[in-house]
Design brief:
The complex is a heterotrimer of chains A (about 350), B (about 600) and C (about 110).
Chain A: E1 7-11, H1 15-26, E2 30-34, E3 49-50, E4 55-56, H2 57-66, E5 74-76, E6 81-85, E7 91-95, E8 100-103, E9 105-108, E10 112-114, E11 131-133, H3 134-143, E12 157-164, H4 180-194, E13 199-204, H5 214-223, E14 228-231, E15 236-239, E16 245-251, E17 256-262, E18 264-269, E19 271-273, H6 277-283, E20 311-313, H7 323-349
Helix pairs in contact in A: 1-7, 4-5
Chain B: H1 7-30, H2 36-43, H3 47-61, H4 64-69, H5 71-99, H6 112-115, H7 123-151, H8 166-193, H9 200-210, H10 213-234, H11 242-254, H12 265-272, H13 279-283, H14 285-288, H15 297-305, H16 311-315, H17 322-326, H18 333-344, E1 366-369, H19 378-390, E2 395-397, H20 408-412, H21 416-432, E3 437-440, H22 443-452, E4 458-461, H23 462-471, E5 483-486, H24 500-509, E6 511-513, H25 536-551, E7 557-560, H26 563-570, E8 577-579, H27 580-586, H28 596-609
Parallel strand pairs in B: 1-2, 1-3, 3-4, 5-6, 5-7, 7-8
Helix pairs in contact in B: 1-10, 1-12, 3-11, 5-7, 7-8, 8-9, 8-10, 11-12, 15-18, 19-27, 23-24, 24-28
Chain C: H1 22-30, H2 42-46, H3 57-65, H4 72-76, H5 84-88, H6 95-109
Helix pairs in contact in C: 1-6
The chains are: A alpha/beta (about 350), B mainly alpha (about 600), C mainly alpha (about 110).
Amino acid sequence: MTKTPQHIIIIGGGPAGLEAASCLGEVGYKVTLLEKEEQTGGKLRLWYKLFPGFRPSGEVREYLANGHKMNQPEIVTKAEVIRVDPETDHHQVVLADGQTLKADAVLIATGFQVFNAEKKEEYGYKIYDNVITSVDLEAQFKSGNPVKTVAGATPQRIAFIHCVGSRDKKVGNIYCSRVCCITGVKQAIEMKEHLPKAEIFNFYMDMRMFGQNFEELYIEAQQKWGITFIRGRVSEIAENMDGSLQLKAEDTLSGRPMKMNFDLVVLLVGMVPATGTEALGKSAGLAFSSGNFLASNDTHFNQNETHTPGIFVTGTCREPLSVAETLTDARAATVRIISWLREKEMKSNN
Amino acid sequence: MHYSLFVIPFTAGMIILTVLLAFRYIKWLGSLEAGNLTKIGLNLFTVKTLYAVREVFMECLLHRKVFKNNRMLGYMHMSLAFGWFMLIVIGKLETFFYTGKFANEFYYPVFFRFFELTPHKSLMLFVFNAAMDFTLLVVLSGIVVAILRRFRPAITGMKKNTKHSTGDRLALTALWLIFPLRLLAESATAGYAQNGSFMTQPLGDFLAFFLPVQTLSIVFWWMYSISLGAFMVSIPFSRYMHIPTEILLIFLRNWGLKTNDKFTGFSEIEIQSCSRCGICIDTCQMNSQGNNCTSQMVYFLRDYRYNQLRPDLTDNCLLCGRCNVACPVGIDLTQQRILKRKKTTFEQPEGFKYLPVNQPVAKADVVYFAGCMSHLSPTISRSMEKIFKAAKVNYLFLDKNDSVCCGRPLKLSGQFEAAKKLVENNRQRIIASGAKTLVTSCPICYKSFKEDYHLNIEVLHHSEYLPGLILQKRISVLPSGKKVVFHDPCELGRGSDIYIQPRILLKHFNNLVPLIQEKENSLCCGGSLGNLSMNPDERCAIQKATSEYLNSADAEIIATSCPMCKKSIAQFSDTPVKDIAELVAANLETMPESQKSLKHQKEKEMIEIL
Amino acid sequence: MKDWGYSILKGRQIDFENNDFSISEFVAQHEPSFKWCIGCGSCTATCSAARLTNFNPRKINLLIQRGETKGLAEEVAKCMMCGKCQLVCPRGINTRNVIQNIKRALNTCHAL
């Protein structure tokens, strides 16, 4: 008598979803991965090189695309999930087009989106020409075109502003988005590689260099690349007649205010939960943590389980994480799911 | 000569009250602002006095403003006030008809039924007797509502009652006892003298059935007199001071007196006119949206009257003006609060020696002062600059680089002398520019320029200036086709009475939809530079609630005309929030002559409205 | 060395163990958000007065919490109460109320 394998639905085809899908498929479960965009890969598709070692993002994407060879998961794109109705036996996953799928377990991996920098009106994003975000800059680097101001000139002086949309009560996000500091250091170095004559300044509140080789990269930025780090949060930006930008900050370490002109300003934007996560989470009866990310059951013992049995969370829909950490988290979720499904099977057999 | 021992408590009370009132009123009238006595003299024999009489009748007796708030609440206040008034008037007429003369002992009408035991001599007196009973019934019904609403405020449409001090509670008890005791006294007397009417007589007969009414009536008359006397004496020391003082206030106000930047005798009269009705509590957003019901005007005024101003409480007010609109007595509450902050705040005007003087200022026709907040909302000043350029205005952006604050935030915090330093400094620069018009984007600055700067040039907020540009055909604006809702900033709307101009401007090129809570009833965004001590979470709660209300209109854009409001609402709003200047700039169009006919039509419509 | 903001007479060290914290305690009692400061400097960056004189709200907050109050009265006198600092503070500190209460503390404690 062959048993039908238990079915897991994964919502979200970014790094977390893809990695979990491969791992679960490899041990023999039936996995359906639902991705709302046309392609899988999530935000990874937008990145140029990953910190701290400048690995091309394509390498990770390839790794995820190939996956583990046994039991490839069923990947469905352009499938947006609007609701999860938890039930004791099989959870119902409802799609935007009206379809309903059943699963023994559901793994939510909906990921994040970047903070909308327009909300920080005083920084002038989409108001002044030469203010861009770190995401815009990655796209610039990826395109291979030289970085230029909107007027077509080569920027001589560039500023990176840390903590845009994070650690900021005024935009409602008091948490730290974790990866923006290291991104700032990475992009500052990349910019210097691209424009060796440019002067580059990073304006920070703290330098959060928590990961392996992060502090080393920070040292390299100072020593090898001559990037200047100024401890002072920028309060506002004004535009000069020629399109260049004037920053106001306090150099807190010397205790004196400063005004500086820049040709280009890059805002290091933070993470917020992806659109639709709130509605999805509410429908499944999930709790939310600081920043409206999906809350897990326990910070040490159960990072991937939620209060609803059979509904799991992984990746940046749970909290801000780097790509490397996301992959680790996905694998951890896999272990929990397997454990839980086995228990469920044993209970139903008794 | 009509006399009995029990009239003494009442008489003593009346005398004490009269003396105390006279002392106080003379003292306050003696400390009016310079020139006010002349003002009174000039206006005394004009029609304004008649207006005052009418207002006294409509507000103190009929409580028309309270009726507008809630009918049951209005009935409660009216029945007591107007009822008691009518008891006095009808009582006086009754005694006149009975004795044939007006001048009897002044306590005689009050205890008339005790003194005159002969049943109704004529039809006229029968009618008067019935009228008195009826009026007493009305008053008693009001008292019933008053008692009930202490337990269930919702019956008068209020969510919160004023929490009264012990003194007020004692005075309240005395007041509530007066009329039931009168009923019992008159009924007991009717029980043995048969001189009652449709209410007092049956009750009297009932009492006579099993009680010794003759003796009992003396007890009741004593208690009635004591409660009257106690109430009279309590008037100068409790919230009931408002009864006589409000009348004085109405006359003075109609003669043109008001509270400006100095606390005068008039200000004292205003404060003493507060009846502690509590209507300001419900209307205050810190209560309804922020769960704070300890700092409202009623408590602040009471603190002042009992000489215990608390700095944190005095600082904790949005100064949004919603209570001014709701106050049935018409007290200028926000100005009173600001004046009292002079006492609770320490100022150091000498600290502003660093302000730059004698800087060169470019000359221009129009000087534009964006305001401190606009630096944090750059689209507003950018839009204004775009409009100025399109209209080819010779303008000077005075605070483009750095700015000296207009001075109003200092004034709102009670630092009047310090504010003057900033005003002097900015004023020099504005005059030095030689401009004929001053335009500002910030309603706070606007109010400051209008009230404290004493400039001889035209001072306009941009929501007033922009319609002018359109009418003069210096710019033209294309219809946007968008559904827009407008949020009235407190300092522009209630603060400066500018409600129509922004709406005309918006209607010119948008589909403007009205709100229920708008104009004088608009909500405060919560941003408020007026509130110094509110905790950040409470402030966010108010911002959020106002934002939600505006979002509920389902418009495509929420328009406003204040950078502070824009930031405060945008923080919690899904619908985009834009300043009027931004909308004008976004839809600004230079167009060939051939397409001007539609614009002409729209402009004609605007002229007609204006 | 150029100026250190307002003068600190007690030598150059911050004598935490012997300093007087009465002003800090007074302010913390009336405006608890005073303690949330991480010293990011946005307030000073945007301050209207800091553009024109030596005024530094971040530094004032810091030094009070360290018990350094020399010259404080002269400094807080420079605040225009414009509120820009409050609008930019990422911790949501009620900066204007901190200044209000410093002034009250100075007048209550007669500390200069």
